[in-house]
Specification:
By secondary structure, the protein is mainly β. It has one domain (2-361): Methylamine Dehydrogenase, Chain H (7 Propeller). 4% of the residues lie in helices and 50% in strands. It has two helices and 28 strands. The chain has helices spanning 5-14, 67-71; strands at 36-42, 52-57, 62-64, 81-87, 90-95, 100-105, 111-116, 123-130, 133-138, 143-147, 154-160, 165-171, 174-179, 194-199, 205-210, 215-221, 226-231, 242-248, 254-260, 266-270, 273-278, 281-286, 294-299, 307-313, 318-323, 330-337, 344-352, 354-361. It has a four-stranded antiparallel β-sheet. Strands 4-5-6-7 form a four-stranded antiparallel β-sheet, with no helix packed on it. It is globular.
């Protein structure tokens, strides 16, 4: 997407000479196929069946709200769209309470199918291992389920892991699953706070390594064989810090740890920089630096604005933040520059509880 860099930034700047307050989500219709964009998965409110999907067109510099609903009249994503995972032009949305994975075209929003899991599951995050294998975590089933991402057929071979698995990622023929324990609820159960390691070939759990209480988020440095796992405060331990641990993906050895506070801790990795979001703002860690200090690059000065998710666009030098506000009203997509002191370029309204941001480029 490098050739888009100047087009994207220029378009945003032309429409945002001064940053304005966002309007309510619009009913803008996408103008043709979107070849490079940003999908924003919005959870909605539990029990309200009002999850939604928004898209930001990188070339046009244009936000379209209710992307999925507009492309599929009469259809809804369901209850709690927890995460979105993209493979080429295909987006897989894990819908927790509805026990489904919605499959759609990223470039058009059109539904490609719906994968229905058994009642009582609670789907959280998806990893695409290869053309014939994808894995989704099941918060309530304390397991992961397998499906074929090309045919959308469930593979009848669930794998038991630890309690309340959430984050999942694969690297070097291994799949790492973060067993959160669901905060205090299952914190004392065996393997709560551990990462379960699954061999991608045998699909057997080959190790369990301790991370920390309420382990949820995962990121990978595939070039250097490193895994980053985030853990967060237990609600019952008000003064306990969360943090991030670096593991060697081959040996599974713990290498380094950084302490960070905050109830929400989302992490992502790009260009040797580990980015972490918490209640204070956005932190950056240069993992190739021997000191690898944590540096607050963007402060959240409005503490009642709940930054929920982060994504990095290295090609266009942009930083995207999902602001859930008070978790009850329309959220926001904040777009910042990726300078040493990031500058706010634009604010767009989103659906309720924007919880995941994923970039796609189908060129």
């Amino acid at each position: 997407m490098k050739y888009l860099q100047y087009i994207v930034i220029a378009t945003i700047l032309l429409t945002a000479s001064c940053v304005e307050q966002p309007a309510k989500p619009s009913a803008n219709k996408p103008q043709g196929k979107i070849e490079a964009g940003v999908l924003i998965s919005c959870e909605g409110i539990w029990g309200m069946d009002n999850a939604s999907m928004d898209v930001f067109d990188l070339e046009a510099g244009r936000m379209t709200n209710n992307y999925f609903a507009q492309a599929n009249p009469g259809r809804f994503l369901g209850d709690l769209a927890q995460s979105v995972t993209i493979k080429g032009d295909t987006a897989f949305v894990a819908v927790t309470t509805s026990n489904t994975i919605e499959v759609l075209s990223a470039s058009s929003g059109k539904s490609l199918g719906r994968i229905r899991f058994a009642k009582g599951n609670a789907l959280r995050e998806i990893v695409i291992v290869n053309d014939s294998l994808a894995i989704v975590t099941d918060l309530y089933g304390h397991s992961v389920h397998l499906f074929n991402p090309s045919t959308f057929i469930i593979i009848d071979n669930s794998i038991k892991v630890g309690p309340a698995p959430e984050g999942i990622i694969n690297i070097d023929d291994k799949i790492f699953v973060a067993n959160s324990g669901y905060g205090d609820y299952l914190a004392n159960e065996p393997l709560a706070g551990y990462l379960s390691v699954i061999d991608a070939n045998s699909l057997a759990v080959i190790a369990n390594i301790y991370c920390g209480p309420n382990a949820t988020g995962l990121a990978a440095d595939t070039a250097n064989g490193r895994i980053y796992a985030a853990y967060r405060n237990l609600p019952s331990k008000e003064n306990a810090l969360g943090g991030i641990i670096e593991f060697d993906a081959q040996s599974l050895a713990k290498l380094r740890e950084w302490k960070l506070g905050g109830d929400n801790l989302d992490i992502t990795f790009a260009d040797n920089i580990l980015y972490a979001l918490n209640g204070e703002g956005i932190w950056a860690i240069n993992t190739r630096d021997s000191e690898a200090i944590t540096r607050l690059i963007l402060e959240n000065k409005q503490q009642k604005q709940y930054w929920y998710a982060i994504a990095v666009d290295s090609d266009n030098k942009l930083l995207y933040i999902a602001n859930a506000r008070n978790y009850q009203v329309e959220g926001e997509l904040l777009i910042y520059t990726m300078e040493s002191s990031p500058k706010l370029l634009r604010v767009y309204s989103t659906g309720i509880n924007p919880g995941d941001i994923q970039l796609f480029d189908i060129k």
